[in-house]
Amino acid sequence: GWFRRLLHKPKPSSVESSLNASRSTSSSPSSSSSSAESSGSSPSTSLVRSVRPSPISLSDINASGSARWAKNYDVCICHSEVDLEVVEELVSYLESQPESFRCFLQPRDATPGSAVVTELCDAVQNSHCWVMLITPGFLRDPWCKYQMHQALAEAPMANGRTIPVLKDVERKDYPKELRNLYYIYMALKENSFRQIRDTVMR
């Protein structure tokens, strides 16, 4: 399936093309560092970034031709059932922001009667970012691990971003599959929610 998607990958829209072109001209050190990272060069060269890409404005994100509208959701929240209360607070926070983030929340947005596997795969494929709320309940839930692996498999093809968020989990219990990704540690909910929002915006 992934090979077929690679062959039939749609051409980027004019907005994406112009955005990519402006990034490549204005932040060439960043692009060279990403190529250095992929070629496996030393960490000292891959961490040097003298120019950061300019932030995308709210009008760019909400424009009708924006790449944002190519998918049904901005954020897919992967969580265990025992963490539903904090996830509902996070979704409420994100959806009330000026950007009006579109969040996939399984108990609310999954289609009754559909297979769990189908719903989880569709949620991942139809989202730009995937927030993994890593808690003791997440680590025990096989469906959470399944969705985590789906997001990791989808990210390279879709230019998406997996955002691990640790809550009540020690560093030693952090899933090995995610150890190449920076994570957000949820201590104060308000600060963590803001950090998640800023990460999604990037």
TrEMBL record:
InterPro entries xref list: TIR_dom, Tol-interleuk_rcpt_adapt_Tirap, Toll_tir_struct_dom_sf
Ranges of Low complexity composition bias in the record: 16-51
UniProt source species: Nyctibius bracteatus (Rufous potoo)
Alphabetical list of SUPFAM superfamilies matching this protein: Toll/Interleukin receptor TIR domain (SSF52200)
Protein name (record): TIRAP protein
GO MF: Toll-like receptor 2 binding; Toll-like receptor 4 binding
SMART domains per the UniProt record, alphabetical: TIR (SM00255)
Pfam families cross-referenced by the UniProt entry: TIR_2
Domain TIR: 71-202
Residue ranges, compositional bias (Basic residues): 1-11
